[in-house]
Amino acid sequence: MSLPFVDLSGDERKQGRGHGEALRDGVRQNRDVYFERFETDAGVAREDVLSRARAHLGALRKSSPAYVSGMEGIAEGAHMSLDEIVAINVRYEILYDGVGKRMMAEAKRDGCTGYVLMPEVVKGGRLLAGQNWDWIPQVKGAVLRVKREDAPNLLGFTEAGIFGVKLGLNAAGVSLTVNGMLTVDDDGGRLERPFHLRCHDALRARSLDDARTAVAGTPRACAVNFLLSGLPDEAADMELGPETQRELSAHEGVLVHANHFVDQCAAGVEEPPNPRRHNSEHRHARLEEILRAAAPLSRETLMDLLRDHDGHPNSVCRHPDTELPEGQRVHTVCGAIMEPGSGSLWISDGPPCEGEFEEFRL
C-alpha cells in the first residue's frame, strides 16, 4: 500500500479546496474518529467541541486569516461544515488538554519518535531528519506537495482535514517533526495559536531561526515538542510548555526526541503522573543508541532502524498494545526520512516493518 499523494498550488483557499476534494473520504473518516475520541478520551461532547471550534475560529480570523481560508477550502472540497474542519485542526488542543485533565493517573496514549542526523554521522555527508509518527490506527493521512507563491514550496505528511503538513520539509531546506507532550498547566481553552498552525508557520520559514520563532515566539495552550533542522548542518529541538521553552541540541551528531520532557526541572514544567512514561523514555534512548551505533548511516540502514522492535509492542516501530483498552492503542501511522538538501521524503504507509518506504520529491 502507499499513502495518497496530492499536488496542490494556488492561494490557501485553492490549496484547501484541492485537499478536501482529493481526500474527501479520509477527511470524513477523521471527523468521525475524532468526534468519537473527543467524547470518549477527553470527555468533550459534540456540541462543546463545535463551540470550542467556533471560539478558535474567531481568534484565527484575526491572527491568521490565510489559515482560515485554507480550512474554508477544505470544508468546501470535502462538503463539510467549517466548524467540523476547525475542530479537526484544533484537535490537539481539545484532546491533549482533555486527556491531561481526565486521565491524570491512567494509562495515556503516547507515541512519535523523531530525530535529526547531522552530516558527520551520515554517509555522503548530508543532513537527514524524520520520525516514526505514532497515533490512532483509524486516522487517515496523505502526502502533500504544495507549490506556493508567497513561501517556499512544501512536501510532507498530514492528516486528512488538517491544513498544511505536520511533518515535512520545504524548498528553503527547513524540516519539521513533532512530538505530543503534556504538562499540568495545559489549557486547551486558551485561544493561542494552535499546534497545527505552528506546524504550518514553521514550514513557511526560510531559515531555522525563522522556524524557531514560528513555533516558540508566542505562548501556547498546550505543551508540544518541535524538532527542526536547517541546511547545511543546523538542528534545534524545542521543548515547549504553555509559557516555557527549552532548546536541545545534537550530541555527537544525533538529536532524538520522544513524548516526554527530557528534564522537567530544566524545562520549568511539571508533567502529570503517567505510568507509561517509561515507554517514551525507552523509545528515546533506544533510537539514540542504535543511531549512534550504526554511524556513519546510509538511508537504507536508517530505514531498517526505524523498524526496530526492541520493547515490542511499545517499540520504535510501534504496534497496538493488546493489554490496553482498544481506545488507547496506537501504532506507527508512518515512518519518515527526509533529506532537505535534495528535497526528498521517504515514507511508509503504516509501521515501517510492514512495507516499503516510498520516495517523493519536492
Order of helices and strands: EHHHHHHEEEEEEHHEEEEHHHEEE
Beta-strand residue fraction: 15-25%
**Residue runs with pLDDT of under 50 for 5 or more positions:** 103-107
Radius of gyration equals: 19 Å
CATH class of the largest domain: Alpha Beta
Can you tell me the CATH superfamily of the largest domain? Penicillin V Acylase, Chain A
Describe this structure as you would to a colleague.
With 362 residues, the chain is α+β, with helices and mostly antiparallel strands. 35% of the residues lie in helices and 22% in strands. The chain contains eleven helices and 14 strands. Helix 3 (46-63) crosses helix 4 (65-78), helix 4 crosses helix 5 (82-89) and helix 7 (195-202) runs antiparallel to helix 8. It is globular.
